[in-house]
Amino acid sequence: MTFFPYLLEGLARTVSIKRSRSYGNDVGREAAIALAKEARRNELVLSSTGTIRNNKSSKFTSVCSKRGNKGINQDSFVVWEDYGFQEDMMFCGIFDGHGPWGHVVAKQVRQLLPSALLCNWQETIALRSPSEDPEADFESLSWFEIWKQSYLKTYAAMDLELKHNRRIDSYHSGTTALTIVKQGDHLIIANIGDCRAVLATTSDHSSLLPIQLTVDFKPDLPQEAERITQSRGKVSSSHDEPGVYRVWNPNGETPGFAISRAFGDYCVKEYGLISVPDVTHRKISSQDQFVILATDGVWDVISNKEAVRIVSSAPDREKSAKRLVECAAQEWKRKRRGFAVDDISAICLFFDAAWTQAANYSLKVTKELSP
After folding, report:
1. Domain ranges of the chain
2. CB-based burial of residue 290 (10 Å sphere; 0-12 exposed, 13-18 middle, 19+ buried)?
3. SS3 label, residue 3
4. Predicted model pTM
5. What is catalyzed by this enzyme (predicted)?
6. Residues 247-280: pLDDT tens digits?
7. Of the candidates 198, 107, 105, which has an alpha carbon nearest to the alpha carbon of residue 159?
């Protein structure tokens, strides 16, 4: 594994002055921000609808976002190819803001989180005990724990930064955050909120099957509801929205939030809503074809199976994310007639160089999903 020299220099200084933690963190953060700026100059970072094609590897990414009719688009996303200037790494993140300042919160997280995670990950590696093998196998528990601890530290710091940022009102506003780091043939997934990651894998019968990699963190999930009620928060649904459970403060006076984990939303943070991510790992096999990251604007009207079918049947994978977003927009009009269409965003990350459709997925999806 190789590291970008400038970042290593900053992290070496961090190790040498471990007793001055704040200064060391500043050095590492500056180095990570510098890497992000350099990546943008090299067109390795994408934060608007489009595609990233890596000529050095088989990875290919398609991204699309469509504003709903609720006002400004509060979805935000980022794809960073050669994450940290390491050719075997990629960062993907998708964020769904909510509340009056939701779009601002989502953009702030999009801008700061990738470089902050990179800084914490590299710092954790640099601060490992000398007795630990630097070439340790990725599958070892300690190696995954490095990623997990880096994610936990980064999400906690990100939430704290929002709390103290006087230019952003995140008291009644916040954002979900679903991020994936692809390192070699491994995926590290971290999630808060109800964005979802779905993997498309080939079955023994050569058809594509969906595997959901994340949990939709809704307030009525047993473990989430238990934490909220133990923190004196309330979980309930209204007559206007039957089946939609929300988090409330004890008096029920704050805006109810339909998610149990998010950045921001400080009006209910002391009542059980948290920003602690669920961090998991998946090793990519030869059967795995691509992964979809999407906001709930997709998943509220498109099933996992339908999403895999739509993406796999796209004649041009450069437009696969756009195809999924457009199909979701059609389904909103058909299934949610009379409701305001949500913002819809998706990232499609392909693993293999050759784009071959599964034999059982030649169905004309657009025709099937049309009104």
Report:
1. 5-211+287-369
2. buried
3. coil
4. 0.83
5. O-phospho-L-threonyl-[protein] + H2O = L-threonyl-[protein] + phosphate; O-phospho-L-seryl-[protein] + H2O = L-seryl-[protein] + phosphate
6. 999 987 778 999 999 999 999 999 999 999 999 9
7. 105
